[in-house]
Design brief:
- By secondary structure, the protein is an all-alpha fold.
- Among the domains are: 134 residues, alix/aip1 like domains (Serine Threonine Protein Phosphatase 5, Tetratricopeptide repeat), CATH 1.25.40; 143 residues, Serine Threonine Protein Phosphatase 5, Tetratricopeptide repeat, CATH 1.25.40.
- The protein contains 20 helices and three strands.
- The protein has a three-stranded antiparallel sheet with strand order 1-2-3, covered by helices on one side.
- Helix 1 packs across helix 2.
- It is elongated, with a radius of gyration of 40 Å.
- This is PTN23 phosphatase.
- It is found in: Cytoplasm; Endosome.
């Protein structure tokens, strides 16, 4: 695009600190940081020193030196207290991510990767039970939001730098992928309940962005097709971009004016591109326009990543102010064990994510939603939009009669005008015939001198009125056709609800069809059960790793025995790993069963889709008939007003015609008597 309109970004509030029995000056400087990068640096230093402190003094949950730590939970505003120094670390880490998100949403937009890194470290290294705003679901949502916004920043820069169209399309497609992940989290009922009122605002913005950046991706795919002189592909990509942008515009209702301006600007660009491409292809290139689903999909290019957080990096934390308190050997050994646990988690997560990716791609290709796989419930009720129209007509019982009467009055006036104009035309034709006879009798071609002049004016006006009548006659015919089209529907809507319901199509399924549906639903439920179990096992593994602290054992273990101790301690994870392996292994069989069930479901799906299409079409037709009523009444009244005026003029013209014809006849008689 010639310029790069900007969409607003989501940023997170910082948590407020309460009680923590730590040096007051240190505490104040760490929790009341300025909203800039200096504040980020202060939080990192404080986080590092807390890490050094907790590795030497037993200030964790249930330990001897634990003291109350209080912070405010973001969504509820309630104070949450834990006697655990790791809670202080977790809250500081959350604020580090929130502050980066705040800075990233400003004009320079450079910090979301750091925000994603802070939330990722918090999710992977701390318990999720401290408070709602640090639950696994909320942190995963934050990570995807921040990665999406970081990719969005990269997209803006790429467009400003005029990077290649295909690269820009892939970058934009990845923005869409990140926001889809965020949207899935926002649509999760548990996440929605945690977020409260803010969930709807975030969901609306993210959904709008999904369609907007999908439009940007297809715009640049169209530009690439243009560069490759694939003019048919160019048309379909620009058409798709236009369709997706229109969806974004629908979802942008209630968004600030800056969003509306960005959408209008983008509409000017995409609309112009599409109109130009279509016109060129229609009149110059004549290339076949392929279906969009026959073209290769745009694969996202994830060019941003969560920047890692290392709380012990001396460059960030400065010197360890607690270095002399305890020997570092136990701390070093604990760090090594933490790395072993992290390695175990990475290995397991790699397998889970690989299987999840296959499962997600498979389910996306199937396009099967367990909640709406048959849609049979919708046929049991009249839809609300139709009920609304029925209710409106029930308090206006004379709707159909008024419309019919109005059209009858219009027809009557129309007939009167037509009769008057026909009589005028007949009078003029008769007079013209008599005039020709007179000329033949007298042997004169030109009109006789002294002929009455009024007939020419009458003829001219009659021609004008006939022309008006002819044009209005077409409109009148169209109006009657429209009335006849909608009259039956209006009678149906104003009648008993049982008749309305009977007029709506319903599916007719055989017992075999119902069995196919039940089998498909059962397997889809099995897929969801497999997903839920996998998530539960993953959560158990994470929590088990978080709680696994062997520092006490390390202090009393000889250095040479550390490896053996690690191996013994890691065996506690074997049972969970077995359960996860079984879950992952079951996926292939479940998907095979789903494939077979889907093949049998194909015919039922087609039949249900056809019935749903007919049902929607019928509903739309009935609603359209209701909405056409006022327009028909208005046009009918306009027609009556027009013909009433024309009737008056035609009646006067008829009187003039009669008088003029009589005068003309009298004139002819005078000539004959000479």
């Amino acid at each position: 695009m010639e310029a790069v309109p900007r969409m607003p970004m989501i940023w997170l509030d910082l948590k407020e600190a309460g009680e923590f029995a730590f040096n007051a000056a240190v505490k104040k400087s760490a929790v009341s940081v300025p909203r800039d990068f200096e504040g980020c640096s202060t939080l990192r230093k404080y986080l590092g020193q807390l890490h050094f402190l907790q590795s030497r003094i037993p200030m964790g949950n249930g330990q001897d030196a634990a003291v109350p730590v209080t912070w405010t939970e973001i969504f509820s505003g309630k104070a949450v207290t834990h006697e655990d120094i790791k809670y202080e670390q977790a809250c500081v880490l959350y604020n580090l991510g929130a502050l980066h998100s705040m800075l990233g949403a400003m004009d320079k937009r450079v910090s979301e990767e750091c925000a994603a890194g802070a939330f990722t470290y918090l999710r992977d290294h701390f318990p999720h039970s401290y408070s709602v705003d640090m639950s696994h679901q909320i942190l995963s949502l934050n990570i995807n939001l921040m990665l999406g916004q970081a990719q969005e920043c990269l997209l803006e820069k790429s467009m400003l730098d005029n990077r290649k169209s295909f690269l820009v399309a892939r970058i934009s497609a990845q923005v869409v992928d990140y926001y889809k992940e965020a949207c899935r989290a926002l649509e999760n009922s548990e996440t929605a309940s945690l977020l409260g009122k803010i969930q709807k605002d975030w969901k609306k913005l993210v959904q709008m962005k999904i369609y907007y950046f999908a439009a940007v991706a297809h715009l640049h795919m169209g530009k690439q097709a243009e560069e490759q002189q694939k003019f048919g592909e160019r048309v379909i990509y620009f058409q798709s971009a236009l369709d997706k942008l229109n969806e974004a515009i629908k979802l942008a209702k209630g968004q600030p004016e800056t969003v509306q301006e960005a959408l209008r600007f983008t509409m000017d660009v995409i609309g112009g591109k599409y109109n130009s491409a279509k016109k060129d292809n229609d009149f110059i290139y004549h290339e076949a326009v392929p279906a969009l689903d026959t073209l290769q999909s745009v694969k996202g290019a994830p060019l941003v990543k969560a920047l890692p957080v290392n709380p012990t990096d001396p460059v960030v934390t400065g010197p360890d102010i607690f270095a002399k308190l305890v020997p570092m050997a136990a701390h070093e050994a604990s760090s090594l064990y933490s790395e072993e646990k992290a390695k175990l988690l990475r290995d397991v997560m790699a397998k889970i994510e690989a299987k999840n990716e296959v499962l997600d791609q498979f389910m996306d290709s199937m396009q099967l939603d367990p909640e709406t796989v048959d849609n049979l419930d919708m046929y049991e009720h009249i839809p609300p939009v139709l009920m609304e129209k029925c209710a409106a007509l029930s308090v206006r019982p004379d709707t159909v009669r008024n419309l019919v009467q109005s059209m009858q009055v219009l027809s009557g006036v129309f007939t009167d005008v037509e009769a008057s104009l026909r009589e005028i035309r007949d009078l003029l034709e008769e007079d013209e015939a008599q005039e020709r006879k007179l000329q033949e009798l007298l042997g004169r071609v030109p009109p006789a001198p002294g002929s009455p002049p009024g007939l020419a004016e009458v003829s001219k006006e009659c021609s004008k009125y006939l022309e008006l009548h002819e044009k209005a006659s077409f409109t009148n015919t169209e109006l009657h056709r429209a009335m006849n089209l909608h009259l039956g529907n209006l009678r149906l809507l104003g009648g008993p609800l049982e008749q309305v319901r009977a007029a709506l199509p319903t599916p007719s399924l055989s017992e075999d069809d119902k069995q196919v549906l039940q089998n498909l639903k059962r397997i889809l439920a099995k897929v969801q059960e497999m997903r839920d179990q996998r998530m539960s096992l993953e959560q158990q593994l994470r929590e088990m790793i978080q709680k696994d602290d062997i520092t006490t054992s390390l202090v009393t273990t000889d250095r040479s025995e550390m490896k053996k101790l690690f191996e013994e301690q890691l065996k506690k994870y074997d049972q969970l790993k077995v359960y996860l392996e079984q879950n992952l292994a079951a996926q292939e069989n479940v998907l095979k069963a789903l494939t077979d069930a889907n093949v049998k479901y194909a015919a039922v799906r087609k039949a249900l889709a056809e019935v749903e299409h007919k049902w929607n079409t019928t509903v739309q037709t009935l609603v359209a008939s209701y909405e056409a009523y006022e327009d028909l009444m208005k046009k009918s009244q306009e027609g009556k007003d027009f013909y009433t005026d024309l009737e008056g003029k035609a009646a006067k013209l008829l009187e003039r015609a009669r008088a003029a014809c009589q005068a003309s006849e009298a004139h002819r008689q005078q000539l004959l008597e000479r």
